[in-house]
Amino acid sequence: MKTVSVIIPYYNRPKKLDRCIRSVQNQSYKAIEIIVVDDASSLPPNALDDTIRYFRSDKNLGPGPSRNIGMQHATGTYISFLDCDDYWGPDFLETTHRLHLQFPDIVMAYSNGQLIDTNNQVLGIRRGKVFDSKTIIPTIFEEGRPWGTGGCLWKAEAVKLCSWQSFAAWEDYAFDTDVALSNNTIVGSPQLLVYYDASGADKISNLSNDTVKNGKNQAAAYILKQLSKSHLNEDEYIKKSAKRLLFSHCIEVAKNGNCTPETRKNLINLAQELCHLTTAFVVRILFRLPKKQQLQGFRFLRKSIT
Question: Is this model's pTM higher than 0.70 or not?
C-alpha cells in the first residue's frame, strides 16, 4: 500500500479538528500519515495521539503557507489537503486511490462533496451538481473549481514541485494552475465522499468582501502570468479561456478604481502575450478612459471572444 500524507492546516477549531482527524483515521484505506500544521492558534488542539505529526508556526501565515509546511514534512506517495473544518466519508481515500491505479497518468483524483451545517446535516451538493471533469484547465476558468480542496488526492511528486500562494482568496486556483502546467489530467468520482462545513463564525473563508476581491485579483494576475509562458497556452480552447479571465480581471481592476502603473503595465503585457499587439494597445487606451468607458470596453472585449 502506498502511503497518503494528509495535511491539515489548523486554526482555533479544536472540536472540528477532532471530527476531521476521526474521519481520516476511520478511512477504509489505512496507509495514512496525518500532518497537522497549527497556524499560530490561540486555542490549541485537543490531545493528539502519537501517530499524528504536529507542527506549529510562530506566527499566523494562512492556510496556503501552512500547507507548504505540511508538504515539506510529507513522506507519502500521495498528498491530500484537508481543511480542519471539513471531513471525509470512510471510503474517500480508497475510492480516489483506486482511480489513480486505474488511470496512472493522472495527477489528481477527486470526489464530489456535500455541504453541511453546524449539526452535520447535509444542506446539498457542493456547487449544486456532480461534476465529471477530465482536466484542471480550462475547467477552473469555465466552471469554477468543481472539486474542493479537501476532495483531491494528488501525486506527491507533482505537487511538491509547486507551492501554495498566500493570497486571501483563490489561492487554490493558483495552486491548481501551477500543477496543471506540468500535468493537466485528472479524473473524478461521482460519489459524494467529502463534507464541507458551510457554517459557523469560525469558518476559514469568513473574510471581508474587499479582502476577497483583492485576493482574487492577486491570484488572477498570478495565474495569467503563469499561463502566458506555458505550453498550455498553445491550446486554442485554453487560450480563449485565458483571454476571458484576462478581461474579467481587467473589469475587476477597473471596478476597484485603483489601478497602479505597475498593474496597468502588467495587464498590457499580458494582453500582448495572450492576445496580440493590437489588443494590448486597446487595453492601454482603455485604462486612460473614465471608469464607465473602461468597463464598457473590457466587457466588449470579453464578449467578443468566441
Answer: yes
